[in-house]
Design goal:
Oligomer: single chain
Largest sheet: 9 strands, antiparallel
Strand content: 35-45%
Number of domains: 2
Radius of gyration: 22 Å
Structural class: alpha+beta
Order of helices and strands: HHEHEHEEHEEEEEEEEEEEE
Distance between the termini: 68 Å
Shape: elongated
Number of helices: 5
CATH superfamily of the largest domain: Vaccinia Virus protein VP39
CATH class of the largest domain: Alpha Beta
Strand order of the largest sheet: 11-10-9-8-16-15-14-13-12
């Protein structure tokens, strides 16, 4: 049996389509710009676009001076995206990789962009929370992250764009020490970026966690600090995690 070039092309295209976790549907340019605006992309950022298709989001990020990488399972789309980036004279700042998006290393990304199906977002959510650094931004066209409430939202011609800020792990028990040597017990309960807690048994007010920045109020005093793996460092106070 002899196959014509057109037949081989059709078979390859069908095979690639079966490999994809989601069909390729490009985001309109206005939505792309809104995604990058909502994430406040700057030249200091590294952007990773999962399911990058023809490369338009990574290329738009590159035009803003960011380093950007697009990931797609379809080798034909990866080649098309690379050609577009080269035409725009954005290589090597903008690059593309043929890869299963569930295998992509996320830790290096300052901004993660998505236009994927809800079930794919749901499967990615644990990796985003566990692997991405606190303060990293995630933007998604059209679809949310289930019960992880968004931190920002915009709409372009009826199309929704969501923003999340990856939160630090603040939940747990902390031994707190003030500048004058006084000690206190800080207990925080966390669900995504939503945090409640007590300080020496007194319920905290106005608790806010944005990335690795934690703030809360007890009585007439406001506390602000930076959350790390085993410590929270504030102005005039410090807390260490209690095992």
């Amino acid at each position: 049996m002899f196959l014509t070039l057109s037949t081989v092309t059709l078979i390859a295209a069908a095979s690639a389509a079966q490999e994809r976790d989601a069909p390729f549907v490009p985001s309109p340019d206005a939505v792309v710009e809104a995604m990058l605006d909502l994430a406040a992309v700057t030249p200091e950022d590294r952007v990773i676009d999962l399911g990058s298709g023809d490369g338009r989001i990574a290329i738009a990020a590159g035009r803003r001076g960011a380093e950007a990488m697009g990931v797609d399972i379809d080798s034909g789309l990866v080649a098309r995206a690379y050609f577009r980036a080269r035409e725009a004279e954005l290589t090597p700042r903008v690059s593309f990789r043929r890869e299963n998006l569930f295998e992509t290393r996320l830790r290096d990304a300052d901004v993660l962009t998505l236009y994927l199906m809800p079930e794919i977002n749901a499967r990615l959510r644990p990796r985003i929370l566990n692997e991405m650094k606190p303060g990293a931004r995630v933007v998604s066209h059209a679809f949310d992250m289930g019960d992880w409430a968004h931190d920002g939202f915009t709409s372009v011609d009826g199309r929704r764009v969501f923003l999340w800020i990856v939160p630090a792990v603040a939940g747990g028990r902390w031994a707190m020490t003030m500048a004058d040597g006084r000690t206190a017990s800080l207990v925080l309960d966390q669900r995504y970026q939503k945090v409640t807690g007590t300080l020496d048994g007194t319920v905290l007010d106005q608790v806010m966690l944005r990335g690795d920045r934690l703030s809360f109020r007890q009585g007439d005093r406001r506390y602000e600090g930076r959350v790390e793996d085993a410590s929270i460092t504030g102005d005039g106070w410090r807390a260490v995690r209690v095992p």
